[in-house]
Specification:
single chain; 21% helix; alpha+beta
Length: 56
């Protein structure tokens, strides 16, 4: 895990890395979902947009 949002709010998100690729994990009250895998630039752009409320 590279960075994350506060776990005190639902849903929370984590920017993760595995095998040289990056993905975003969404953690809700009863489920966990992971995005597709991206290169770092794509993942960082999506993470930034997520934090700004531009994507869900």
């Amino acid at each position: 895990m590279i960075t994350w949002t506060c776990g005190c709010q639902t849903p929370s998100y984590e920017l993760c890395a595995a095998g040289g690729l990056y993905f975003i994990r969404r953690i809700a009250a009863t489920s966990i979902h992971e995005s597709t895998r991206w290169r770092y630039r794509e993942a960082e752009a999506t993470w930034s947009a997520l934090l700004k409320g531009e994507v869900h």
